[in-house]
Amino acid sequence: MMKLAILPGDGIGPEIVAQAVKVLNALNLDLSMTEAPIGGAGYEAAGDPLPDATLQLALDSDAVLLGAVGDWKYDKLERHLRPERGLLRIRKALNLFANLRPALLYPELAGASTLKPEVVSGLDIMIVRELTGDIYFGQPRGISTLPNGEREGINTMRYCESEIRRIGRVAFDIAMKRRQPGQKAKVCSVDKANVLETTELWRQVMIELSAEYPEVELSHMYVDNAAMQLIRAPKQFDVMVTGNIFGDILSDEASMLTGSIGMLPSASLDENNKGMYEPSHGSAPDIAGKNIANPLATILSAAMMLRYTFNDEANAVRIENAVKKALAQGYRTADIVTDGCKQVACSEMGDAVVAAL
Length: 357
Ligand code: NAD
What we know:
alpha/beta; 2 domains; ten-stranded mixed β-sheet; globular; binds nicotinamide-adenine-dinucleotide
């Protein structure tokens, strides 16, 4: 039996995770699910955004399905008690170094993008973001007071060769799997090698690694240009690979190409494909508790879980097709609704996907 840890988290987390659980239950898988608090919910339950029992459950499980963490009401807590620390710590503890964020535009939602339909229709990008290194974890860090009494903030951007190589491998392997007949697999590595030595090394290692993947065409782009090209001509990209901070920003940008952040799943994997799966968006405290959030990113995250951790491609595709069918039938949550469609609540969207299964 496969073991799944369910961590609903804060804000809309519990509402959207409940829909994904409903979908997984409908598939009658040999799967045990155990729930535990994280983020603000962890702080409320145990005074810690990542309670020991939650971490232990995650370590003992084959995969983790997470809602989202965070709420403005925790902004005044000391930094180590804030919900986001729980997320950074669980990623580090599970050694989830590879974050996969697909940006795929469903034809039914082409009108929801702020870009012209011809620029985005048929868009299918996979952003591979390194998740456990870079300036988010580098030491030294902190805010200190200089001898002259002025405060100074410091963060450190760093990557070692092996960290760059293992994320590069994930990107090259995915590019090979995504290759369409008659087309070349493509990886675009994003850096700022003209200014930052850390990313100069990143580029060197990617070039060395590419020798092992003659079928994959490797290109390089500076992050500022990549931000611009994603808006100008996003369909030029297939797989993009980049470090933690650049990936954080570019994957959010790519998500808006598709119209709604509520549609985008994500996977974070370790070296054995154990993974944590979560929607790309946050906890949306502004709409929490109203049953209006879009649960599709979380449902599609469950599909990614079946594909990448449980090697169950057939059921992953079943879920994805059920989501497509629900959209084709005109069901829309408030964030993606357009004229002529049927606006439904979060739980009703979950029901529509189950019915389509
Ligand atoms: P957010 O992603 O929570 O919300 C941004 C906007 O998108 C909001 O208007 C929200 O209503 C909307 N939105 C997000 N998800 C939606 C969904 N499924 N359906 C419909 N609308 C949706 O980002 P934010 O407002 O910057 O952050 C809110 C909180 O979430 C903060 O505490 C932040 O730290 C946290 N956060 C958590 C994660 C995570 O858990 N991985 C990621 C980003 C932000």
